[in-house]
Task: structure prediction
Amino acid sequence: MRIDSSAARAPSRAAVTIAIALIFAIWAINFLVVKLGLRYLPPLAFASFRVVAAGILMLLIAPLCSRLSLFRESASVSPLATHHSPLLRDYWAFAYLGLFGVAINQFCFTLGLRYTNVTHSAIIVGLAPIYTLTLAVLFRVEQLTWRKASGMAIAFIGVAILASGAGVGHRSPTLLGDAIIMCGSLGFAMYVVLGKRVAANYNPLTMTTWNFIFGALFILPLALQQTRAIGFPRNFFLIHWQAWLCIAYTALFSSALAYLFYFWLLRYLEASQLAAFSYVLPVSASALGIIFLGERASWLEFLGALLALLGLYWIESSRR
Result:
């Protein structure tokens, strides 16, 4: 694993590894949590509520996180502009990153899982590193090498084999659901690449806080409309407690904390390097299904998981 040491106080390899493992463990569990939450809330309501809740939670935890040196280093703008007032160009960066990385990605991912199954969504999520690498090359954030391209291809083949052999999901896949998941994956790829371009200008807490503020503002009108449609406040008390627990998990862990650490990692890793770890998600999701849902794994699934991990290793072994 290659870590950019040009920035001051570059983290150790162990710290980076732990952060990556934590992020993708949270996101692997997120598949199960969203599926559970969609049993109790309409998809538009669940998708919009989680984005707005994440924005609110980010505002609440920002003052606490600001006390940690991990998220204060190289700060050019304070999280809530209490010490330095953001310029217009800063707000513009916060807005488009909040649109792609928070509003589009999280909303489309949640909504898409309602209309397609895990098999199709796993293949589409497996394409995300390829989107990221392509965009990173087009935006001249990094260079394309044969090692990156071949590793991405090997890992994607593994994800496709794994997904085709899984047979998970009670809902038949639809073209609409696949298209929505695709939009979410493209949104996150844009977030990673464009975020890498400005990662050195802001500390992780500043960027993540403002991204979620703007992301929540983009989705807020829909959340208010869904609140009225459900019937606030009387019908809100009739919603199952598990639905609120799912929203809390997706807002706090899958959104706020995971994004905070993701942007921190983006300062030290290449965009395609960090995105390549997304290949671990389908493998992790299948493992969780075996452990907690009693699903059986076929040799085809094991082969796919092995290829996905080998592709990731092939990419990472070339970095010094």
Summary: The longest helix spans residues 88-115. Residues 77 and 87 are 9 Å apart (CA to CA).
